[in-house]
Amino acid sequence: MSAPDAPLPEELQTLPSVVPSTRELGDLELLLAGAYSPLTGFLGQSDVEAVRTSGRLADGTPWPAPITIGVADDVREGGSLVLTDPEGAPLAVLDVEETWPDTDGHRRAAGKLRALRAAEHGTFAGLRRSPGEVRAELGNSPVLARVTAEPLLTGELTRLAARAGDLQAQVLILLAVGDTTATQPPETLIRAVLAARPHLPEGTIIVPVPLSTVDDPDRDLSLRAHIAAAYGATHLHTDRDAPTAPLPLLVDPDTTDAHGTLAAALDEGAELPASLVPDEVATELRAARPPRNRRGVVVFFTGLSGSGKSTIARGLHDALLERGGRTVTLLDGDVVRRLLSAGLTFSRADRDLNIWRIGYVAAEVARHGGIALCAPIAPYAATRAEVRARVTEVGDFVLVHVATPLEVCEARDRKGLYAKARAGLLPEFTGISDPYEAPEDADLVLDTSQTSAHDAVGAVLGMLTDRGYLTGRYR
User: Fold this and answer.
1) Rounded Cα gap, residues 237 and 173, in angstroms
2) C-alpha dihedral over 176, 18, 87, 350, to 10 degrees?
């Protein structure tokens, strides 16, 4: 593997490059490190279909989750791609042996991976170790692992120590810092678990791993067990059982409710008793996750052109300024197009890029405790999900679907866009020649053919107040 600053070999410099998603980058790192053994590359179609139906690869080897990578529609077999990190540093070469359209409409690729250099990490880089390095440190004694994306609660710490004592095992904590459903960013999780060290057995090893959550709980637990085994664990400490796992599971009470109690207490700014979480951990969590009335939040409006989302967003912006107490930034779709995204077309790739740019700016607003109001069309569910994931690393995300019917939006046609689309002058126009994927995860649904702009603004203000982001009442 090349040194971090080594130039890309000349024969690879003309290859097209791809920046994988957060989940794919984590999978790439785990593949190259051997943590996904027996996998050595991204899975092909037959393996993916077999895994989805049976939890096994096509050859019958148990494996719980499809590990894939998305590529552009024009990528075909026989070529090669350079996979880079978000800063453009090349990590590996994928020699494409197979491509196919997945069930979500995206093209996937499989083939051999050639490592170029190790992934670079900023914060807590010293904790990041390969499976081989961890196994060498653990030796041959029993190892009890806990794989978690959440801070360790007082009860978990007590039971984990007791179980380790019963086994006379060393404790290994693997922190899942990939694409997860965690309520805090990776740095907060790591600090919180490091703060819990006085309550863990002596010699406990803590390692962040770029592991992402699998939607199915049984498969997610099985994947955690595979990862733990790769890092040298002989047993896995869990909250629940699973039908199949490559390691013996030591199951203790489910902590889902307790983690919910912790999240609610942080949202409200309530006291965190030591019976719930150690004082050292509470201090870290309070600093990183302030109460909702001081926490950054992105209110993301999505809907067809002419649905009224910009009108509601502007009204909400004005109402919040009148109330005071919070910093507010409005990122309207049309204004962003003229400034932040000038020169982009309306192709799917450019529309996604426009939404990613909006999401990036909105996340920075939320990072610093502000409220960002975004009002793009954002027609694709996957892109909205990526923005949500980026934002929730630093703040909260509220999705408002302005679900005004197409016929109403087209009848309004204030900008004449629908007429141009019907005439074929605007290809790939959302609602006419390109789909709008209505969200299934909206926090609020509004229809401006049934609700006035004033009442719609009031509905959003009411929701934000009820959830604790605002204080007082809307007048």
Assistant:
1) 10
2) -110
The secondary element (H helix, E strand) that includes residue 154 is: helix 154-167
Do residues 154 and 278 make contact, with C-beta atoms less than 8 angstroms apart? yes
Banded pLDDT at 1 (limits 50, 70, 90): low
Amino acid at site 299: V
Query: Judging by beta carbons within 10 Å of its beta carbon (0-12, 13-18, 19+), is residue 352 exposed, middle or buried?
Result: middle
* Placement of tokens 């509004």 in the chain: 446
CB 262 within 8 A of CB 153: yes
Radius of gyration of the chain (CA): 24
Determine the distance from the C-alpha atom of residue 265 to the mean position of all C-alpha atoms in its chain, rounded to a whole number.
23
Q: Are 154 and 261 in contact (CB under 8 A)?
A: no
Record the pTM: 0.85
Look-up of token digits 């002058």:
425
In order, the DSSP letters of 57-81 are -TTS-B--S----EE-TT--TT-EE
Whether 36 and 103 have beta carbons less than 8 Å apart is answered as no
Task: State phi, psi for 268 to the nearest 5 degrees.
Answer: -90, -10
| Nearest partner of 235 among 224, 223, 249, judged by Cα | 249
Q: Give the model's confidence band at 93: pLDDT under 50 very low, under 70 low, under 90 confident, else very high.
A: very high
pLDDT score for 260: 92
Hey, is 6 helix, strand or coil? coil
Residue 7: per-residue pLDDT? 65
Beta-strand pair 371-375/297-302 = parallel
Best CA proximity match to 298, nearest among 472, 451, 443: 443
The pLDDT, as a whole number, for residue 475 is 40
Reduce the DSSP state of residue 309 to 3 states and report it: helix
108 is written with which tokens? 């996937």
| Mean pLDDT score across all residues of the chain | 91
Summarize pLDDT for 117-161 with one digit per residue, the tens.
Answer: 888 887 899 999 999 999 999 988 999 999 999 999 999 999 999
Burial class from Cβ neighbours inside 10 Å (0-12, 13-18, 19+) for residue 168 reads exposed
